[in-house]
Amino acid sequence: MARLGPVDTLPEPQELEPLLSAALALPALKPQAARLERLLRDYARGLERKDAPLSVALVGATGAGKSTLLNALTGQSLAREGEDRPTSSAATVFAPEGAGLDALAQAGAKVVRYTPGPQGLWSGQVFIDTPDLNSVATVHREVARAALERADVALVVMHRGSVAEATQVEFLSEFARRRALVFLINFADELSPESREALKSQSRRLAAEQYGLPLESVPVFAISARAAQRGEDPSGEFGALLFHLKSLATQAVAERVRRTNARGVLEEIITRVEGALKETEDTLARTRGALESGLARASESLKTDFDSRLGLAQGHLGSEVRSQAAGRFWGPAAWGMRLSYVGAGGLGAATLVARRNLPVGLAVAATSTVLDAVRDRTRARAAETAVVEPFEDDLAVESAARTALAEARSLAHASGLSPETLGLPDVETLLAELRSARASAWRYTLTTAVAETVARWWRTARWLLLPLVNLPLLALMGHVGYRVVRAYVEGPLLGVDYFLNAGALFALLAGAGALLTSLSLAGTTRAVRRAGLERFVALLGALGGRMGESVQESILTGREAARAFLRFR
Question: Between 427-444 and 358-387, two packed helices, what is the crossing angle to 10 degrees?
């Protein structure tokens, strides 16, 4: 039986129960829940039965001589020999008077009490005589399995034809790691010394290959149970068997056997939990990789879609850029920059008309200003609609969302899990996230990106463009002021036409300055658009990261419990 470090450092069953209960949340562990709970009960029994007599199960095929061996060990005719054993479907427990048998009684075994005597070769133990393993009735193997679940040691009784019997090998593989096994080749008096050694070697090899037991430490004895009843030992190995069994029956060794069995049980539980944890981690890693791959493919089409939407909102972005740039300017050119080309053109036309008819010019100026304000509001709403529109009619983005999730969700279904168990969203949820990312990127573009880009433009424009635009206007204002003062001092006073012409020239210079400033901002608008696109890509990346973390954090309680279980290795 395999070992897992010192057998005196075993955790209490109460410590394992909540961990196992939580670890059963692992999808790969759920189908094994019944067996794991049975193993945990077996583990608890192994630690609780410190002072009880050793429970020894005799297992083997039909005609192997289990009952004969039992009678030889107890020195009494307790079990019937040589009968049609497969007709019995119940295990029989032969126990000394006064031995506690609660666990065995619960298994439905028939209990026969006996009084140990000096005639017994190894009397005083609790013996469990099980149905034959190679019986055609599968219920016999289930009864033997239930009996061995409650035994400490299994005496595997074989004849020459049952050493490698498939049903026996399969049956014992379940217990090899959590029970002390002793292999007995019966009817040694009918075998030559060479045959005995060959069968013993075959038994050791099978134990090593099929059960993972160390080859050199597998206890195998060639005996004759019938001869032992007569007090004979033709093979010379029955005495060695008795010495081995009696060493197991001492209180200290018996307790160690049970704790070693319990350690074997714990190892099996840990192995199963570790396998389920690894399978779950692999599934999560594959799912996350598939999700990231799908999002990467979808992000290209989403990026193209968002860029085209920003293109539709280019006019409004330019207006926002001019408005924020005008806030940093001062002077008449800044007033013009707050107007669109339509508004600026209207004011220019109003100036020219005012030279001939002042009321009409003022009316044209007022009308163009109102139209410009209405146009600006309409364009802002149109831009918002173009960039952040409902997804119901957004087939391209919906297709991208389905593409992003398709492989990951298919992988979840292939693993027998619901996508939600692995933290995968449905298409509608992803669409809502993409909608939020697009709206957030648009808000960023319209505010932060515009402000930061204009700030970079202003660092140069304040030293070059501002003087170039405002100096002619200041010069004109200085010239008009000089002429007004001179006319007032020297006479005659200036006429209305002079002021109209000066005003028209002033408006033209301011318009030209605003136009020049707007032209310098053309590259700034493109930079704002690039910044918005980069923001959208970053938001997609962050969304992918959050979704990947959601997958990675799924089934977290079960995985943490499984990792805690591995600490007992």
Answer: 150
The torsion region of residue 155 among left (phi > 0), alpha (psi -120 to 50) and beta comes to beta
Q: Quickly list DSSP for 500-547.
A: HHHHHHHHHHHHHHHHHHHHHTHHHHHHHHHHHHHHHHHHHHHHHHHH
Does residue 313 contact residue 387 with C-beta atoms inside 8 Å?
yes
Average pLDDT of 494-510? 79
Q: What is the DSSP letter of 420?
A: T
Count Cβ atoms below 10 Å from residue 399 Cβ, excluding itself: 12
Closest Cα to residue 397, out of 302, 309, 308, 533?
302
211 token code pair: 């059960």
What are the residues facing 183 on neighbouring strands?
156, 220
Its sign, for the CA torsion 118, 123, 124, 129, is: negative
Asked whether the beta carbons of 480 and 503 are under 8 A apart, the reply is no
Strand partners of residue 220: 183
CA dihedral 93, 94, 96, 97 (to 10 degrees): 70
What's the one-letter identity of residue 230? R
Look-up of token digits 């593989």: 173
pLDDT at res. 88: 55
Does pLDDT of 95 surpass 60? yes
DSSP 131: P
**Higher pLDDT residue, 4 or 73?**
73
pTM (2 d.p.): 0.69
What is each CA distance from 69 to 79, 115, 158, 183, 341, in whole angstroms?
9, 17, 11, 13, 111
List pLDDT tens digits, range 345-377: 666 666 666 666 667 666 666 666 666 655 566
Q: How far apart are the C-alpha atoms of 33 and 24, rounded to whole Å? A: 7
Contact assessment for residue 158 and residue 185, using Cβ atoms and an 8 Å cutoff: yes
CA distance 126 to 65: 18
Q: Which two tokens stand for residue 550?
A: 């959601």
Q: Are 107 and 150 in contact (CB under 8 A)?
A: yes
Q: What pLDDT, on the 0 to 100 scale, is given for residue 101?
A: 72
- Lookup: tokens for 243: 């010495």
Structural contact between residues 434 and 298, judged by C-beta atoms closer than 8 angstroms:
no
Task: Give the CB-side neighbour count of residue 323, counting CA atoms within 13 A.
Answer: 15
Give the phi and the psi of residue 428 in degrees, each rounded to 5: -65, -40
Q: What is the mean pLDDT of residues 41-57?
A: 81
Instruction: Please state the φ and ψ torsions of residue 492, each to the nearest 5 degrees.
Output: -75, 165
User: If you count them, how many residues does the chain have?
Assistant: 569
Q: What is the pLDDT confidence band of residue 254, given thresholds at 50, 70 and 90?
A: confident
Q: Residue 138: count other Cβ atoms within 10 Å of its Cβ.
A: 9
Give the whole-angstrom CA distance, residue 550 versus residue 545. Answer: 9
Of 87-96, 103-112, 121-130, the one with minimum mean pLDDT is: 103-112
Tell me the sheet residues that pair with 129. Answer: 58, 92
**145/130 Cα distance (integer angstroms):** 9
